[in-house]
Every structure is written in C-alpha cells, then in structure tokens.
Design goal:
- This protein is an alpha/beta fold and 347 residues long.
- 29% of the residues lie in helices and 25% in strands.
- Strand 5, helix 6 and strand 6 (196-200) form a beta-alpha-beta unit.
C-alpha cells in the first residue's frame, strides 16, 4: 500500500496535472511517483484456525495499515488478501460509534454492521455491557465516554460476535490492567475455540503470552518466526539506536550481568541470585561519584528495581584521573515472567 505525502488540491492548476499523472501511471504500480511512499510492502503471512499472529514494530511501521487492508477499510495498491469466515475487528477506538447515540444503541448499530442478527444482539447485550464494565453509563451518549470506555465497549462487541477471525489493533493501550487481563483471557479462549487472531500491540508482554508467531515490520518485514525470537530481535534493534555519552569526567566502560559463579546470563528463573559488575573510568579528579542502575521491563518500561551506590561506598577518597573503578551489586531476580533490560548510569 502506498500513499502520497501532502496530497491536497486547492485549485484546478494542482488537480489537473495530478489527475493526468495518475492516469498515465496506472500501469506502474511498483514505481513511486513524486511524493509517494510505501506504507507497507512485501508483507506476506498466513494465520490458520486456532493460531495467533502478533504484528510488532515502531510507530509508523505500517502495522495498522496492514490490519486496515485485511478489514477492507483500505484497498491495496498491489497484492491480494483473503479472510475466510465472520470477522470481528477493532481497528480504532470508537471506530463506527455514533457519538450522539448511547452505548446501548451503539451496541445494536455495531452488531448489525458486523453481521449479527437483531435477536442475537438482544440475547448478548447484557453480557456485552457486563464485559465492557460500562453498566452505569450504557444509556449515556458515547461522546461522553473516555477513550478507555470506548475501547472496552468496542472490544466487548467484537468479542461477543462469535467470529471466525479476530483482528485487534492496540486495544490494550487504553484499557486499565483488569480490562487488559480480561482481553487476553478472552483471546486465549478464542484460540482454543479455533478462532484465527491477528493482534497488533506495543504491549510485548501480551504478544508474548498470546501469540504463536510474531511478525516484525518496518514498512517491510524485518523478522518472522517464534514470538520470543522476533521480540528479542525487535528490542535489540530498538535499543541499538540509543547511544551512550562518553568523554565526560567519568565514563562507564563495561557492565556485566552474571550469576553468582560469574557466568554470563540472559535467561534466568525467578528468584535467581545475580551479580551486576560495572567498571567506570575516571578522567578528572573526583571526590563524589554516584552509580545507579535501573531494571526495566522491556515490554512496557515498568521500573521493576533500582539500586544506588554513593561516593562513600565506591570511592572513599579522591580518585586519580585514569583510574578504573569497579563495583559489584548483588541482587535476586524477584521478577515475573517477561523480558527486562538494565540501564546503568554514573554521576
């Protein structure tokens, strides 16, 4: 799918050359004309019944565009797609809701758009409202709903459609923790019932829990395969863009995470004793040095642990320039399942 940057025609002088260029360029779908760019290109995948594919990537990578192609919101510039069976989709928060209708009225409107019969909607309306947790506001216009309430109601309608295919985009980004848990649990139920899922999210924890395979795209596919492997490649690519400042009064020159025997670690069980060894080079005379580290959960940047050394613990007295100082911090990985990274800083 390709788009044109700044496509806007304010006069016949702009419109006529653009129309002529399009007519002449119809046969050249592979070529980019002036100001055009590929939002998605060369992306190909299959998702079978009872399987889930997670699509990950940075903002602007084409994830939502891919889902809009699958749901026929957009027409592809080139290529084909096929979705078999009844589709439940939540592509944008409150997409398809009429702002002046109540939540209850929008349930009937959305259900009808998705192909549910009126009797089916009536049979499920209470369950939809209960799952969404909007009982107190269901007879209020949705224009007064928060983004989280809109997302909960939209997902609840899609989830009670009894779909063959479920296509979800970033529904977990606006819901609270309890709602996110309900969403993941419901999607796991769908998998067991033979529903095919395509799931876009920045919540890599949910992707890791739910998806059998993952696809990392950045306009074009960068990696596809086992979920853990693709997430690891995505995170390493993302982290590689960060640079460490050097050339100051003191620089970190090495940081190693090991078990208590000194062996490097990358995969550990909860409760494993660990040791973080950090070396830093002093370039100028210093009497005050503070070293800190923070352990983040990589999937949502939750701070799981932090530690600090003050100058009295690390230096003790003035350090001569050119000296390498080494510190060890021992701690236990009292962490839930997930992927984490450690940031070291020196002041």
């Amino acid at each position: 799918k390709k788009f044109r940057r700044g496509e806007r025609h304010d006069s016949l002088r702009d419109l006529i050359p653009s129309a002529v260029a399009r007519l002449m360029g119809r046969a050249r779908e592979d070529e980019l004309q002036q100001k055009e760019f590929w939002a998605v290109r060369n992306v190909s995948f299959e998702v079978h019944a009872g399987k889930a594919l997670g699509i990950i990537g940075p903002n602007g990578a084409g994830k939502s565009t891919t889902l809009k192609l699958l749901t026929r919101i957009l027409r592809p510039t080139k290529g084909t797609f096929l979705v078999r069976g009844r589709v439940g989709a939540l592509i944008e928060v409150a997409a398809g809701f009429h702002p002046d209708l109540t939540g209850r009225e929008n349930i009937f409107l959305q259900g009808t758009i998705m192909g549910m019969k009126n009797a089916e909607i009536r049979r499920k309306v209470d369950e939809i409202i209960d799952f969404a947790g909007v009982e107190a506001f269901v007879d209020s216009p949705v224009k007064r709903y928060s983004s989280g309430m809109n997302a909960r109601l939209g997902f609840s309608i899609a989830a009670h459609l009894e779909p063959d295919v479920l296509i979800i985009d970033e529904v977990l980004s606006v819901g609270d923790a309890a709602f996110q848990d309900r969403c993941v649990t419901r999607m796991e139920q769908f998998k067991r019932q033979g529903v095919a899922l395509v799931f876009v999210s920045h919540n890599l924890q949910a992707i890791s829990t739910l998806c059998d395979e993952a696809l990392f795209i950045k306009s074009e596919p960068k990696a596809r395969g086992a979920t853990a492997d693709v997430i690891r490649q995505y995170l390493s690519t993302s982290m590689a863009t960060q640079h460490t400042e050097t050339g100051g009064a003191v620089d970190i020159v090495e940081a190693r995470l090991t078990d208590r025997t000194g062996a490097p670690v990358s995969i550990v069980r909860p409760g494993t004793p660990l040791s973080l060894r950090v070396k830093y080079l002093v370039r100028e005379p210093l009497t005050e040095v503070d070293l800190s580290f923070v352990c983040h959960r990589s999937t949502d940047m939750l701070v799981a642990y932090d530690g600090n050394f003050h100058d009295s613990e690390t230096v003790g007295s003035e350090v001569v320039p050119g000296t390498t100082v080494e510190t060890d911090f021992e701690f236990t990985a009292n962490l839930t399942r997930g992927q984490y990274h450690i940031t070291c800083e020196v002041f």
